[in-house]
Design goal:
It contains one helix and six strands; from the N terminus they run E-E-E-E-E-E-H. It is mainly beta. The strands form two sheets. It has a four-stranded antiparallel beta sheet with strand order 3-2-5-6, with no helix packed on it. It starts with 7 loop residues before the first strand and ends with a helix. A hairpin with a 5-residue loop joins strand 2 (21-29) and strand 3.
Length: 102
């Protein structure tokens, strides 16, 4: 995910290898599990593509979780949004969710 710009965050798919093919991806809320965006994109070797754009509240503290799959494997990543400071209990809860990503 990209930094905030004009109330939006861009979701990028980055391929820094030689893989070419379909990538299925999903961005979801770390608290509710609700899907924010999902899709399938074709990636070429060494290609970066903007997959989606999320409309966001700049002052909101939020955990975005991302899953993507290709070649039969599922991978995960995360993005923590908002301005410090963060509640310690909430950070611990989010850390457990991040730890469960592949």
């Amino acid at each position: 995910m990209d930094e905030l710009s004009d109330w939006n965050r861009d979701v990028w798919l980055l391929n820094d290898g030689i893989f070419e093919g379909e990538v299925t991806w999903r961005v979801y809320d770390g608290d509710t599990g609700g899907t924010l965006r999902e899709g399938t994109s074709h990636l070429k070797p060494n290609e970066n593509i903007k997959a989606a754009e999320l409309r966001v509240d700049p002052g909101e503290k939020r955990l975005y979780l991302m899953e993507y799959s290709y070649d039969g494997e599922i991978f995960g990543n995360h993005y923590l949004a908002g301005f410090p400071t963060f509640d310690a209990a909430k950070m611990h809860e989010w850390a457990e969710k991040i730890d469960k990503l592949k």
